[in-house]
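A.,

Following up on our hallway conversation. Structure tokens first:
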């Protein structure tokens, strides 16, 4: 095993009583998991990032923007355990668009990559992630049909935030139940044909749509023999990058615009913190802003947003809100009644109403909640404002 002190390294038989896996191990023999062979020096962090990007460029056909993001993500995988939240990287498209090639190339230089297909069962994935704590790479990751695949989605839902293990129980020989926590936190690369219906899960991904660009003539159809050696050399340099930077990198939340959604800041903060390139930091910050605006736009199509627009233009009485909502969206819903609208306000928005002078209203103490919801859903101020009814 490798040991580092004062920027030098040496070979040790074991450290902290941990015994390395044998080269004859089935997972290593079948290249399910890839490791570096030794630390190798590099000139500078900027040149290492360029070397990673050029390697990706040689073998993969993606946009220049996503190419830079993928290269930065590779560096992040080698220091991911220094952060508490992580994004996932995904390519999306039909078959024959280069998704698998992207996973093979980018995955081959990530930190302890664990290669799996969508057909893999859940048990080995739990054990591999918990044991090796590496980068999970899944091809054909469209999980919609079975409970087994739903369990893989649980890994994706829990695996981007530290401290959210998945609990599983096994029965001992004595018939007792033995609960165990499996750590699934870590970087993940996925290839899918479509998007996930769960919007919360979708928000964890930085994605590239494949097949929208003409294939560059310099991208080889089949990978040359030298590609594996190139990947190994980069893994060795990235191992040294990990040794040099493990205690140096810190989160940089101040680089985000305050208008960026908290969830998007959480997803991007580790990626933007891994690089010292000011231009790249600015580019990632702008991407986070664009993601945030898209989320707000998507929310604007939900019934909650439509209801908030009606509230924003009302006198805060349920009667007024119902009349405005019915005028704008009455043809899209079966029965827009006072009771239905009042129920939506309480259930969907978590806003209380009470009766005052014979009518139900939203009381003044709920206005701060409304203001927060207006901002969350991107609801603009109305042209005409009403004075709220007396409570």
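Then the amino acids I'd put at each of the 391 positions:
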């Amino acid at each position: 095993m490798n040991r580092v002190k004062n920027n030098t390294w040496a070979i040790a038989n074991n450290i902290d009583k941990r015994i390395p896996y044998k080269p004859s191990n089935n997972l290593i023999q079948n290249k399910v998991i890839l490791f570096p062979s030794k630390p190798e020096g590099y000139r500078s962090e900027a040149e290492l990032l360029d070397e990673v990007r050029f390697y990706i460029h040689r073998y993969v056909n993606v946009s220049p923007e996503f190419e830079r993001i993928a290269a930065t993500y590779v560096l992040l995988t080698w220091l991911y355990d220094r952060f508490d939240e992580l994004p996932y990287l995904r390519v999306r498209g039909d078959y024959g668009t280069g998704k698998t090639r992207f996973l093979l190339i980018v995955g081959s230089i990530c930190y302890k990559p664990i290669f799996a297909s969508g057909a893999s069962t859940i048990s080995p994935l739990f054990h591999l992630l918990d044991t090796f704590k590496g980068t999970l790479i899944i091809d054909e990751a469209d999980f919609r049909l079975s409970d087994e695949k739903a369990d893989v989605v649980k890994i994706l839902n829990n695996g981007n935030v530290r401290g959210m293990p998945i609990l599983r129980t096994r029965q001992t020989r004595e018939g007792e139940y033995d609960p165990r926590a499996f750590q699934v936190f870590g970087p993940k690369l996925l290839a899918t044909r479509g998007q996930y219906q769960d919007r919360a899960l979708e928000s964890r991904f930085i994605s590239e749509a494949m097949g929208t660009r003409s294939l560059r003539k310099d991208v080889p159809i089949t990978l040359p023999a030298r590609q594996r050696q190139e990947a190994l050399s980069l893994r060795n340099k990235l191992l040294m990058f990990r040794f040099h930077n493990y205690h140096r990198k810190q989160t940089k939340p101040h680089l985000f615009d305050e208008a960026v959604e908290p969830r998007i800041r959480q997803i991007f903060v580790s990626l933007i913190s891994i690089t010292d390139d000011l231009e790249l930091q600015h580019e990632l910050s702008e991407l986070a802003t664009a993601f945030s605006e898209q989320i707000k736009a998507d929310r604007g199509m939900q019934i909650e947003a439509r209801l908030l627009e009606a509230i924003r233009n009302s006198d805060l009485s349920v009667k007024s809100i119902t009349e405005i909502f019915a005028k704008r969206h009455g043809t899209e819903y079966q029965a827009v009644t006072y009771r239905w609208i009042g129920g939506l306000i309480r259930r969907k928005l978590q806003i209380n109403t009470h009766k005052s002078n014979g009518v139900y209203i939203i009381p003044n103490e709920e206005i701060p909640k409304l203001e927060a919801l207006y901002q969350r859903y991107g609801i603009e101020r109305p042209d005409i404002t009403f004075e709220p009814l007396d409570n």
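The chain has a mean pLDDT of 84. Curious whether your intuition agrees with the design.

B.
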